[in-house]
Amino acid sequence: MDGRRIVIVGAGIVGLCSAYELLQRGHQVTVLDREPVFDSASCGNAGLLSIGHPPLTRPGASIRGLRWMLSSTSPLYIRRRPSPELLRWLLDFHMHCTEAHLERCMTVLCALGFRTLERLEQIMDAESIRCGYQRTGWLDVVMDPANVAAAETEAAMLAPHGYRTERIDGAELRRRDPAFSDSVAGAIHYLDSANCHPGLLTRGIADAVRRRGGTLRTDATVTRIERDAQGRARGVRLARPHPDAPSEVVPADVVVMAAGVWSSGLARTAGLDIPMQGARGYHVQLEGVPVLPRTGCVLHETFVAVTPMSTPTGGQLRLAGTLEIGPLGLPWMRQRLAMLSAGARRYLRGVDEARAVSDWAGYRPCTSDGMPVIGWAPNTPGLYVATGHAMMGMTLGPVTGEIVAQQICGEPCSIEPDYLAAMATARYAPRGASQSRAAPLPPEASPNLA
Ligand SMILES: Cc1cc2nc3c(=O)[nH]c(=O)nc-3n(C[C@H](O)[C@H](O)[C@H](O)COP(=O)(O)OP(=O)(O)OC[C@H]3O[C@@H](n4cnc5c(N)ncnc54)[C@H](O)[C@@H]3O)c2cc1C
Fold first, then answer.
1. Given the CA of residue 13, which atom of ligand 1 is nearest to it?
2. Nearest residue CA, atom 25 of ligand 1?
3. Which of 146, 260, 264, 374 has the fewest CB atoms nearer than 10 Å to its CB?
């Protein structure tokens, strides 16, 4: 087979969409993931493909976060701990919570929005992926009449970027969708977005990657990026499956780091420091809700995302949300999981009559400036990074995969250069180090790395 050997670390939506696009261009693609089953954030998220969604870095967000830090049942909870890394992240996050930065981010994120859905719809069509996708927008559902104006102001932010929204009062909302209770004051309908079952979508793309000749290895934990004497990425090293097993290096001409929140630890093995925190969230999946809402929504006051999902056993409702910043891998905070049903029951009829069929927790990969990290590593030729999508990874996975493939193959990009620069990995260039050229695939034959 022609093409270069490309190893992608991470079988989440970003890694799989990148794999799909690279296979389309004739490369030999191997995706490595340590998980034997799909349990990533890409499968457990709320499934809202909410294009034009603002980043976490909004004016006032850092101050609100610090206030909320004291309560383990606040929507954003930061576990207090003596960590220079967390402190640095918080300070940098605070510096980015400005109007000017938000405007810059929105210009870029809105530019990505329409393209991501267009590309996703093409892939789903070509691969016959059935994941309950519906382009019916999402609703910002407001309980307190005093909050409707603020919801409208937030929606107005999208108008200059060509996004449509509609204000709906409570009675009209209930007429259109009887799932909502009499307590709801109204909603803002973000008309251009979509929703789906994210697990079915992610699996659908994984199947397409296999069908198109890609290799998907699970139970493959990457421990480090291997570099040659010139500092070029030459593959990745895997953890030994047992202490007596030989250590394996999977050789590559290009390594794509798409390991979600774990990308920053792995990037450090190649001397690249990407300040990132994992913001854990939870979901609970309900069966037996008497009336499912017609489209995805976010409950304005409680920040719970609500998505109707069709499954082989019938209609279910996923409640997802809460942001918890702390060390990775700690036991679940059950009180935060409980916040989901508690936060939904006043908005929706019948939540208390439903049965929980599953629950889940996973991490959003959050950079301190609120923007994804997409581009060649500044210090290691052959290493490409695609991560940091925070609350928008499901939405932006397809366009990210396209950018990854276009940049790796040296093609013209579907996104403007200025927008790419705002997300570039080059913003994490080690101080004082000379930057490597963000070169597409090398024309020369790759060295034998076996
Ligand atoms: C509660 C919640 C709700 C959300 N709702 C939405 C939403 O509605 N819409 C939206 O757009 N986004 C949403 N998100 C965010 C979205 O889920 C993430 O941004 C996105 O899934 C990130 O995708 P990813 O591919 O970068 O990483 P992940 O999905 O985290 O995948 C990374 C993969 O890398 C693997 N990996 C990690 N380290 C290694 C290693 N060393 N070796 C091998 N493999 C490794 C992991 O096992 C994992 O499978 C939500 C997130 C949460 C937590």
1. 25
2. 12
3. 146
> Is residue 9 lining ligand 1, measured as CB closer than 6 Å?
yes
Beta carbons within 8 Å of 103's beta carbon, 6+ residues apart: none
22: Cβ contacts below 8 Å, ≥ 6 apart: 6, 8, 29, 404, 405, 408, 409
Q: If you measure from the C-alpha of residue 229 to the centroid of ligand 1, how many angstroms do you get, rounded to a whole number?
A: 33
Say if pTM beats, i.e. exceeds, 0.70.
yes
pLDDT of residue 433: 57
Dihedral angle sign, alpha carbons of residues 146, 151, 157, 162:
negative
| 120 CB within 6 A, ligand 1 | no
Q: Please say whether the beta carbons of 379 and 267 come within 8 A.
A: no
Residue 450 CB partners (closer than 8 Å, separation 6+): 251
96 close to ligand 1 (CB < 6 Angstrom): no
CA dist., res. 389 & res. 55, Å (int): 9
Query: What is the distance between the alpha carbons of residues 263 and 245, in angstroms, rounded to a whole number?
Result: 25
Which residues, listed in sequence order, are joined to residue 256 by a DSSP beta bridge?
8, 384
Which atom in ligand 1 lies closest to the alpha carbon of residue 387? 26
Q: Work out which ligand 1 atom sits closest to the CA atom of 363.
A: 53
Are 12 and 260 within 8 A, CB to CB?
Answer: yes
**Residue 346 burial (CB count, 10 A):** 14
Write down the residue that tokens 């989901």 correspond to: 340
The string of pLDDT tens digits covering residues 208-235 is: 999 999 999 998 999 999 999 999 999 9
- Atom 4 (ligand 1) nearest CA: 45
* Ligand 1 atom closest to residue 222's alpha carbon, by position in its atom list: 42
Q: Distance (Å, rounded) from C-alpha 339 to C-alpha 342?
A: 5
User: Is 190 touching ligand 1 by the criterion CB < 6 Å?
Assistant: no
Q: Cα(137)–Cα(129) distance, rounded to whole angstroms?
A: 20
Query: Does the beta carbon of 324 sit less than 6 angstroms from any atom of ligand 1?
Result: no
240/43 Cα distance (integer angstroms): 27
Task: Tell me, in angstroms, the distance from the centre of ligand 1 to residue 279's CA.
Answer: 11
Helix axes 84-95 and 61-68, enclosed angle (nearest 10): 140
Say which residue the tokens 């919801």 belong to: 151
Position 428 pLDDT exceeds 80: yes
